[in-house]
Write a structure and sequence with these properties.
- By secondary structure, the chain is α/β, with parallel strands linked by helices.
- 40% of the residues lie in helices and 13% in strands.
- Strands 4-10-9-8-7-5-6 form a 7-stranded mixed sheet, with helices on both faces. Strands 11-12-15-14 form a 4-stranded antiparallel sheet. The chain has a two-stranded parallel sheet with strand order 1-13.
- Helix 6 packs across helix 13, helix 7 crosses helix 12 and helix 14 runs parallel beside helix 16.
- The C terminus is likely disordered.
Length: 467
């Protein structure tokens, strides 16, 4: 009944990243109704500053009511809009993007293409600049959803740039070249490199040397650079964020061929905590690609009501400056809390300065240095500790034992409870390993909650080696 395209299994739905969400939905934690349920630490949502936005809305009810100077603009917004977007919104958006980057980079609203979220933006980019079967290189670990966003419907292949914990998972010249050569061994035409800066799942920003190595590589290979910068406003500690556009301008590359092959993806899902508003965008320096992407944007438009409301919020410069400052402060405080709690449980984290998550090192809790052992530990965390976190294998990490834990999508009390649970599990695993208690009495085979077949018999999706 289904078409070949619809039957493709490249969506990645059978990855533990998505499977954990499904199990959470069946047994969601609630501090009153279900206090022993699974705590959701999988989605990178920012709920720490909702009160700031709610306060603004309460003080600016004209915007929320779709009125202007007391007059309704409902009819105007309800009619079909030009799919290039509302000019006021695009003007405010580029100013907001510049503000995040310390006004070191200016953006032209005519080069901005609006899309319904970063997912749609990334897929549209693939359709515009790559053919089915072409390849993009991505540093590992990377966001699990890229397997869906970039390749499911486009037919584009993803080749990992393997990064190592030995240098904090930084991208090196050697790793770039190895990935490029691997793609050619597979007879793949490399169209470009896609980076996430700040990184998801690492929570780190790329330094100037890394960006310059990437630029040199793209120049030498004559390929594109896509910089996904949706976490750029979450940088809460040093070093500061450097946009790929800033790195290009510092080297005065505006009049080179590379300038037209560099593209930025952005959204308001992370920096303003509005994933449900579905606001994404792509910034191009190439008018031909702008035109093509604008035509394709008609398949994923942002509602005019959403654009209107956000244009009013972003036009309040005093509010946006205060929001960015306060949100960064809250993210830093929350990260310090989770890092301290994990350290108290004997668990370390990669040093990070951005994002809504920590890249957590649980290698010492593995029964062996394998991805099978990582999946075994993930199942324990899910069914015994009642926490849904993302295993490194779902992020294509080349080293077993790393996990992404999100910290901004819950209350402080819930975070504290989650840390108590993970500490108890870590202590139990260590006790079992040291043989301080018997196998029967230790709880090493503790009660198993009613668990779906998929958890006990996970598919091999996450364990297959990257190409």
């Amino acid at each position: 009944m289904l078409s070949r395209k619809a039957r493709l299994d490249a969506h990645g739905e059978d990855s533990s990243y998505f499977l954990g969400w499904k199990e959470y939905e069946k047994n969601a934690y609630d501090d009153v109704q279900n206090p022993t349920g699974i705590i959701q630490m999988g989605p990178a949502e920012n709920q720490l500053s909702f009160d700031l936005l709610e306060s603004w809305l309460a003080s600016n009810q004209d915007a929320a009511r779709l009125t202007k100077n007391g007059e309704s603009v409902f009819r105007e917004l309800a009619l079909f809009q030009d799919y290039r977007g509302l000019p006021d919104f695009k003007n405010e958006l580029v100013e907001f993007m510049a503000e995040i980057r310390g006004n070191k980079v200016n953006f032209d609203p005519r080069k901005l293409v609006l899309m319904a979220g970063a997912t749609s933006a990334n897929e549209t980019l693939m359709f515009c600049i790559a053919e089915s079967g072409d390849a993009f290189l991505l540093p590992t670990p990377y966001y699990p959803g890229f397997d869906r966003d970039l390749k499911w419907r486009t037919g584009v292949e993803l080749v990992p740039i393997h990064c190592s914990s030995s240098n904090g998972f930084k991208v090196t010249k050697c790793a770039l070249e190895e990935a490029y050569q691997q793609a050619h061994k597979l007879s793949l035409n490399v169209k470009g490199v896609l980076i996430t800066n700040p990184s998801n799942p690492l929570g780190t920003t790329m330094g100037r040397d890394e960006l310059n190595d990437l630029i040199d590589f793209a120049v030498a290979k004559k390929i594109h650079i896509i910089s996904d910068e949706i976490y750029s406003g979450t940088v809460f500690d040093h070093p500061s964020f450097i946009s790929i556009m800033e790195a290009l301008m510092d080297r005065k590359l505006q009049d080179t061929d590379l300038w037209s092959r560099v593209h930025i993806v952005y959204s308001l899902s992370k920096d303003l905590g509005l994933p449900g508003f579905r606001v994404g965008m792509i910034y191009f320096n190439n008018e031909t690609v702008v035109s093509a992407a604008t035509k394709m944007s008609s398949f994923g438009l942002i509602s005019s009501q959403t654009q209107y409301l956000l244009s009013k919020i972003l036009s309040d410069k005093k509010f946006t400056r205060n929001y960015l400052k306060e949100n960064r402060k809250r993210l830093k405080t929350r990260r310090e809390m989770i890092v301290a709690a994990l350290r108290n449980a004997g668990i370390g984290c990669l040093k990070s300065n951005a994002g809504l998550f920590c890249w957590v090192d649980m290698r010492h809790l593995l029964s062996s240095n394998t991805f099978d052992a990582e999946m075994e530990l993930w199942k324990k965390i899910l069914r015994e500790a009642g926490l849904n976190i993302s295993p490194g294998a779902s992020c294509h990490c080349s080293e077993p034992g790393w996990f992404r834990i999100c910290f901004a999508n819950m209350s402080e009390d819930t975070l504290n409870l989650s840390m108590q649970r993970i500490k108890a599990l870590a202590e139990k695993i260590q006790q079992c390993r040291r043989g301080r208690v018997t196998h029967q009495d230790s709880g090493c085979n503790s009660r198993r909650r009613s668990f779906s077949k998929w958890v006990l018999n996970l598919c091999s999706y996450d364990r297959e080696p990257d190409r």
